[in-house]
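protien #1 (seq + structre)
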Amino acid sequence: MNKILVTAFNAFNGKGYNPSEQLLSLLDNENIEKVVLPTSYKRAAQILRMKVEETKPSAVICMGLASGRIAISLEFVALNIKDASIPDNDNEKASGESVIPGAPNALFTSLNLGHYAKIIRDNNIPCMVSYHAGTFVCNSTYYHLLTLDIPGVFIHIPDDEKSVSSKDKPYLPLETSKMAISIFIEELKKNL
């Protein structure tokens, strides 16, 4: 059976909660390996690489939080740039550095994300293919993932009912995000 490595990030920017980490703990799909990554440019990449070597999964799904978004976002591209207004959890403040110096400006997933987005939307869950994973640790980790010889994707989830700053801001119930990720995992297993 195909094993899939699924990752999420811990809390960052002084907050005590990250819905992607909570979502990871709720996933109960068979044949998945789960790991929480630190919100750190350097350590997240190191741990991801180590876990891929250790578990030898058939594919990798990385998850992170995208506050302000209203749909599950399947990221198509990772950019070779680190740039953010906030530091990571190791206090690294990036301002335009390359993720990997001398590497291509962008890398793209080999997965047909339109197919997966449609299946998730067919289950009445808002989902879209996104072409910008930001330039913080999510994007940096995704860039490292796409340098590995393995099918992979980064999925951004919106705020949930606990992390949203106020109820008039966009959010998606955590249970809905869990359904979307579970659907993605099961469909991915069929296509590996």
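ok now protien #2
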Amino acid sequence: MTSVLTKSRAGLGRAGSSSGHLPRESHGDTIGPMAAGIVILACWVLLALYWNISARSIKSAAEGQSFGARLARMPVWLGFVLFIAAWVHPLGIVAIRRTAFSDAIAIVICAGGLFMAIWSRKALGVEWSRDVELKQGHKLVERGPYSSIRHPIYTGHLLMGLGTAIGSGLLVAFAGLVLFVVGFWIKLNQEEHLLIRAFPDEYPAYKARVKALIPYVL
């Protein structure tokens, strides 16, 4: 009996040891759902803060955008809603299994997107606007990231969306990313039409020379 109990306890000890490693397998092989989520959330908060602070020093609009044209970009906001849903209620179909590598990649991509968005916003300066509109004395910007990408702010946002989706790992977050792509593609085309009309000579040449979102690719 003593021998049986000893073996039983030894077995429980090994089971306990194994179960003790379960948190490491579910959390320890990742940076941790909370830690990765905090870093990604911090990226979005920093972006929002910079956007609102920098919006105080821009030119007034010479030609605004209609309410209907703004509504055409609703997929972007719906994408945000799905990103939030994926992090607040992390349940549903798993698209990719989260690991330490995927968490690290998610953070790097999201932080890279933040850097791209802020750098691009700074390069755009007083010509920037929330909506697709022309400013008083509007000038075509081709410096900084605009020398290699026509819409680097959108590239930055899409990278942040991709990092957020990978960090979540859930299908709903990747659905949010798809909506992000659709929404920003709509806004990109709205902006292209406006700039071609505003700069009929300069913009077509710039467009032929520089890709829209990914240098030398797209």
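The chain is about 65% helix and 0% strand.
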